[in-house]
Amino acid sequence: MDPWIPPMQALRALEAVARTGSLTKAAEGLHLTHGAISHQLKGLEEDLGVRLTQRAGRGIRLTDEGARFATRVRVALSELAEAVREVTEHSNPRQFRVSVMPSFAARWLLPRIGRFLAAHPDIDLDVRATSLLVDFRRDDADAGIRYGAGSYIGVMSEHLMDDVYFPVCSRKIDGGLPKRPADLSRYLLLRSDAQVWQTWFRAAALDWPEPTRGPIFNDDSHLMQAAIEGQGIALARSSLIGNDIVNGVLVRLFDIEVPSPWRYYLVYPPSVSQSPKLAVFRQWLRDEIERDAQMPQNVGAPRGDADKKPRAPASMRGRARA
Asked: Are residues 14 and 69 in the same domain?
């Protein structure tokens, strides 16, 4: 008689909880609700007759049995993912799957993808947008583009490009374009989880704390859209500004910019390092990056002379955000 195997969804839930150490993060990674993950784990425990998790403060942790089982499940899922990758590669040898961050996909990759398709009609580019780091042992991906320090364990990593920050806004913003950095005290500053304003303030000789009020975005494509709609001034990343400055959709303010501590990297498993499709995609990325470097970056308002003691906006006064 064939051995019984628990439902795949329950096994994936257990592996995700073991890997992330959190029900919430596991749910986000599997695109499920917190309650759905809990239900899957409870059902798995009932099916196996073994306690796999236990309470740990406000969260949960795996029991010793649960941790050992999750390790074996992870290996099995990795083998299964590799088998799927191999069979799909044979069934569609033209496909090349790339994992990218949602903001990078929306603001950098997708506007350019038409040029890739036109130049390489023999490759079916499959773009997977996710904020989670790709795990090539588990995820169905051939390569990834990541924004970070570049120290990714177990994969090949190639530096693609650097990034800088500078303020931008729409020409239709209420009050007109600011003339000097100190004028920002009269505007709403849009915030992002990815970067802080205070570093740019220091570069502009403004002794202001980090803003603590106003909208905050966890995706830079949403941040840029809010700026385009004239909702405030955003601290933009050069990699995600696209053609918005050249086309006049956004205006770059002042000539002051600060380097990002993070860089973009092309990552991939050693097993695909000699892939012709990877070589084509890599060269196309570098060609597009070089193309960007040749584009003008017009500054909409000169820096001017800063006040000796510019007054910070009310939203910035008081304690800075940690």
From this structure: yes
